[in-house]
Design a protein that fits this description.
Helix 3 runs antiparallel to helix 4. This protein folds into 2 domains: 228 residues, Acetylglutamate kinase-like (Carbamate kinase); 145 residues, 2-Layer Sandwich (VC0802-like). Strands 3-4-2-1-7-10-11-9 form an 8-stranded mixed β-sheet, sandwiched between helices. It contains 13 helices and 18 strands. It binds adenosine-5'-diphosphate, aspartic acid and magnesium ion. The site of aspartic acid has 12 residues, from loops.
């Protein structure tokens, strides 16, 4: 059994969805369970409709929803010719549109878009896209059944960033899915969305369908988990930034984790965790070029110590706290971490000296309250407009030349913070946000454009940067 997850660009229109059905068909002998994302941009559109409604602009919100429904009807009309099948999915799209408009009306009346309501809006993206994919698979003769995550993906009641309750997910999913799979059916379900124990829809964070795939794969103990996207695999850096990325053939889970944690969009940061726990390999494939070999992420991956990829994160704030009184260091740190726990904010990078602690936060967090509370612990200074670059590769801690090559490549550029040694697999550098792209390009040139190791990297066939 395998899990195949298809992202938004792989489901964005009729052609893409038809492609997905073709890929599923070609893999039937592996007993696939299919996990589907909303069609490209649908989640953003649903969020926009919610925000418009919150401002009282129901008319524009409804127009936005009508346009989104239209994209789904177009896929339906192009891909589904079986009369009853087409009619039944049409009714579901119509009903969903009505429900969405009711939600929007409610938001507009209250002028309040709560995280719970946002989840109620978000879930329609994945629900509709997975309905269309299931129907498209049926058109191709695949015995596909649509399964609603509300029947198994039980999460904690934290909206917009819920975490699954793995034991319950495993129990419910195996009870539901295994009998269907034994009958030869292909399950088609949703990424991103879950449900609380009380039946309210949740979501697991933007872009988290990859995470859904590994949760489902771990629960069903599948042989491997396949993430189908719009690039040939994990690349040496973001193909939107560097002109000639290479493919990384294999990676260790720890490397893929660091890469996603530090911003490489190709995988959601939580993706590797369930797969790692159950030692399940994860493959990244291009749904537009399914014949290519992709990237394999597994614990037995080839692991010569070297830099394998460069990730970056923009929009970072560095907050430095120094104690006003000479408290014991451990007391001071405890006070600092207590504030982070209280506000549930994550420190992306932390560097400390004898007393000072410098912490990088993502600027999208609302930091005013955090900074206010940190100011009761010590003197706080804040540096905005920063970004983080992360060089990823297992064992680079043991390769001092990585540091000298990094400094050479970045010579003349201002570095605000550096962390080397805390992680086996990464060097993190904090610098001005405005310099991030240039620095990524320079580092890419230094580590990947002066030649490469064929065992680890591969030149991309007909590379085109994704749109
Ligand atoms: P999906 O909709 O399939 O989930 P995403 O847009 O979330 O796809 O992720 C794929 C994108 O990740 C690629 O189009 C690419 O621009 C971006 N990306 C950033 N860093 C990397 C990297 N190191 N390797 C591959 N892709 C990357
Ligand atoms: N559709 C969701 C999003 O855009 C989840 C995903 O695609 O991974 O955030
Ligand atoms: Mg994604």
């Amino acid at each position: 059994m395998i899990v195949m997850k298809f992202g938004g660009t792989s489901t964005q229109d009729a052609q893409a969805q038809s492609n997905v059905a073709g890929i599923v068909l070609a893999n039937l002998s592996k007993t696939p369970v299919v996990v589907i994302s909303a069609i490209a941009q649908a989640t953003n559109v649903l969020e926009r409709a919610g925000k418009l409604a919150e401002q009282g602009n129901v008319e524009e919100a409804n127009q936005t929803l009508d346009q989104l429904a239209e994209r789904h009807y177009r896929i339906l009309d192009t891909n589904i010719s079986h009369k009853e099948r087409r009619a039944s999915v049409r009714v579901i799209i119509e009903q969903s549109l009505n429900e969405l408009k009711e939600l929007v009306r409610g938001v507009a009346i209250l002028r309040e878009l709560t995280p719970r309501t946002l989840d109620a809006l978000y879930c329609y993206g994945e629900l509709l896209s997975s309905r269309l994919i299931a129907a498209t698979c049926q058109e191709r003769g695949i015995d596909a059944v649509w399964l609603d995550t509300k029947d198994f993906m039980i999460t904690e009641a934290i909206h917009n960033r819920a975490l699954p309750i793995m034991e319950i997910v495993q129990e419910k999913l195996t009870a539901l899915a295994l009998p269907l799979i034994q009958q030869g059916k292909v399950i088609v379900t949703q990424g991103f969305i879950g449900v609380t124990q009380h039946g309210n829809r949740t979501t697991m964070g933007r872009e988290s369908s990859d995470y859904s795939a590994t949760i489902i794969g771990a629960a069903l103990q599948v042989e491997n988990i396949q993430i189908w996207t719009d690039v040939d695999g994990i690349l040496t850096s973001d193909p939107r930034v560097v002109a000639s990325p290479k493919k990384v053939k294999t990676m260790l889970p720890a490397e893929a984790f660091e890469l996603s944690y530090f911003g490489a969009k190709v995988l959601h940061p939580n993706t590797m965790l369930p797969a790692l726990e159950k030692s399940i390999p994860v493959y990244i494939y291009n749904s537009r070029r399914p014949h290519l070999s992709g990237t394999r992420v597994a614990s037995d991956a080839f692991s010569k110590p070297m830099v394998k990829s460069v990730a970056y994160k923009r929009g970072v704030v560095v907050v430095t706290i120094s104690p006003r009184r000479r408290l014991g260091q451990y007391i001071f740190w405890e006070h600092v971490y207590h504030v982070l726990t209280k506000h549930s904010v994550e420190a992306t990078v932390t560097v400390s000296s004898e007393f000072n602690v410098a912490i990088c936060f993502e600027a999208k967090n609302t930091l005013d309250a955090v900074i206010h509370d940190l100011a009761t612990v010590g003197n706080v200074t804040t540096l905005e407009g920063k970004g983080i670059i992360c060089l990823v590769g297992y064992g680079i801690r043991t390769q001092p030349e990585c540091l000298s090559r990094t400094f050479n490549a970045l010579s003349g550029m201002q570095i605000s913070l550096l962390s080397f040694g805390a992680s086996e697999s990464s060097i993190t550098i904090v610098m001005d946000d405005a310099d991030i792209f240039e620095a990524v390009k320079k580092l890419h040139h230094e580590f990947f454009e002066k030649g490469h190791d064929d065992e680890v990297f591969e030149i991309l066939e007909h590379f085109q940067a994704p749109q």
